[in-house]
Structure formats: structure tokens, C-alpha cells
Write a structure and sequence with these properties.
Length: about 80
């Protein structure tokens, strides 16, 4: 399953029942950053997306897989 940064942030907020400002405080980023990510206006760096996830108690992982192989995720990178 592939999700955009906007979808990831929206899910994180919904699952943790957090406002944009609350998530921003937890992540140590401006509220405008959370808003712009969630609205799809910016594509955050992996570092920023990881900070947002960690602020809400999640760990961001990156799956590196051959796009022609449906076997799953052979390499998983923890950020």
C-alpha cells in the first residue's frame, strides 16, 4: 500500500485525535508545516515526515522493493 505524505499525516492525526497545532507541537514543527503537508501543498523531507510521525508515537519506515516484484518488502529502512 502506497500513501502520500498528506494521507499519512491525515491518518496520524485522525488515529491519535490530534489537531494540527497539537501535532505540530509534538513534532517540533510549525503548525503551517503540518497544514501544508496535509493539504498536499508541500512534499516534506523524510526527516520532517519522520518527526511528525514520531511526535504522534509512530515510527516511519521506508520499504525498498523491486517494482516488478509483488513479493513484498525485501528491505525495510527505519528512519
Amino acid at each position: 500500500m502506497s500513501l502520500s505524505a498528506a494521507e499519512i499525516v491525515a491518518r496520524i492525526r485522525a488515529e491519535r485525535d490530534l489537531s494540527m497545532s497539537s501535532l505540530a507541537v509534538l513534532a517540533g514543527v510549525p503548525t503551517s508545516t503540518v497544514s501544508r503537508i496535509e493539504m498536499g501543498k508541500i512534499q516534506p523531507s523524510l526527516d520532517t515526515l519522520s518527526r511528525v510521525a514520531e511526535g504522534a508515537g509512530y515510527r516511519l519506515t521506508l520499504c525498498v522493493a523491486d517494482t516488478t516484484d509483488q513479493a513484498g518488502c525485501p528491505w525495510e529502512v527505519f528512519l
